Amino acid sequence: MPDLHAFLIEETTTVRDTMQKLDETGERILFVAPGGILRAVVTDGDIRKFLLRGGALGDPVQKAANYRPISLPVAERGAAREVLSARGIDALPLLGEDGRVVDIAFARRRGVPARGGLDLPVVMMAGGLGTRLYPYTKILPKPLIPVGEQPIAELIIDRFHTFGCKDFRLIVNYKKNMIKSYFSDLEKDYTVSFIDEETFMGTGGGLCLLKGKVDRPFFFTNCDTLLDLDFAALYEYHKRRRNVVTMVVAAKHYTVPYGVVEAGEDGAIKQMREKPALDFLTNTGVYVVEPRVVEEMPGGEKLGFPDVIERYRQKGERVGVYPIGEAGWMDMGQLEELEKMRRRLAEPEP
């Protein structure tokens, strides 16, 4: 476990840096404590709500924090378990007489399970050519490209399986027999079934092949995206918002490596910005989808899943986003990103 100070932040800490610190600690909560004195608490849910309200990643975290934190005097440590359970919170700061945070009681370290019990189907688009990963994909289909000792598709399945998912359905096309053979020979305590895509139909079009085969909400994922998040919390959010589709998005911070010039009339310089920084939310390629989306898919149409989402959005249906930190998203869609993923997964646990 990181030391106490890893969970304390300043009021001026940016939302972006707060998200990074949440990822680093592996917990879902931090404490706003200038000079160690508790002022507020901020959770990943607080950050998510702030961003959905239109907040910016560069804003100070005080705009997102809860300034009515629950705490206990350290002398009453014995009551922490009862308070954690009664309040349904992840962590409880224990304060000294001067109001400083001297310790933290965590719910999950007291027998509150954080994972398991989620039993929803997972549909994976595993049929693409993987042209951005050539020449690897000349030999192997993208789902079987190894990241460490396992292929990426198995790593993705393992993440969902950790939360209780046992029904995995892979839409396959390119080198599909290799994919089928690998999972057929694999010792596993979950089921993997295959849907053959005879012609390339895109990430959205292939869903029509599931008509009549799915009758409850399901996770829908690309085969090159590995997320570090609580999938049970994602599904609860999806249900609570009553979305038709919920897209997982990652907060990205990007600094343009050049000076950016905006030209005005007659070739005059209107504005100059030296290496401007951009903050934005980007689609990770992972979704929660209601079953009626499959039944309403037109057959034989080639289209991407973002196009499917846009159709529902244009109709006024509820489609939403679930923001996560940049560190919670690993993508191997390109060779450079594949190597980054390999390095990250090879790092020892803190």
Radius of gyration: 23 Å
* CATH class type of the largest domain: Alpha Beta
Could you list the spans in which at least 5 consecutive residues all have pLDDT below 50? 109-114
- CATH architecture assignment name of the largest domain: Alpha-Beta Complex
Largest sheet: 7 strands, mixed
Strand order of the largest sheet: 11-10-7-12-17-14-18
Total of domains: 2
Helix % is: 25-40%
Question: Layout of helices and strands, plus pairs?
Answer:
Layout: E1 8-9, H1 15-25, E2 29-32, E3 40-43, H2 44-52, E4 72-73, H3 80-87, E5 91-95, E6 101-106, E7 122-126, H4 136-139, E8 146-147, E9 150-151, H5 152-162, E10 167-172, H6 176-185, E11 191-196, H7 202-205, E12 218-222, E13 225-227, H8 231-241, E14 245-255, E15 259-263, E16 269-274, E17 277-289, H9 291-295, H10 305-314, E18 319-324, E19 329-331, H11 335-346
Parallel strand pairs: 1-2, 4-5, 7-10, 7-12, 10-11, 14-18
Antiparallel strand pairs: 2-3, 5-6, 8-9, 12-17, 13-19, 14-17, 15-16
Description:
With 350 residues, the chain is α/β, with parallel strands linked by helices. It has two domains: 4-110, CBS-domain (Roll); 122-346, Spore Coat Polysaccharide Biosynthesis Protein SpsA, Chain A (Alpha-Beta Complex), CATH 3.90.550. 27% of the residues lie in helices and 27% in strands. The chain has eleven helices and 19 strands. The strands form six sheets. A seven-stranded mixed beta sheet has the order 11-10-7-12-17-14-18, sandwiched between helices. Strands 1-2-3 form a three-stranded mixed beta sheet. Strand 10 (167-172), helix 6 and strand 11 (191-196) form a beta-alpha-beta unit. The longest helix has 12 residues, at 335-346. It is globular. It starts with 7 loop residues before the first strand and ends with a helix.
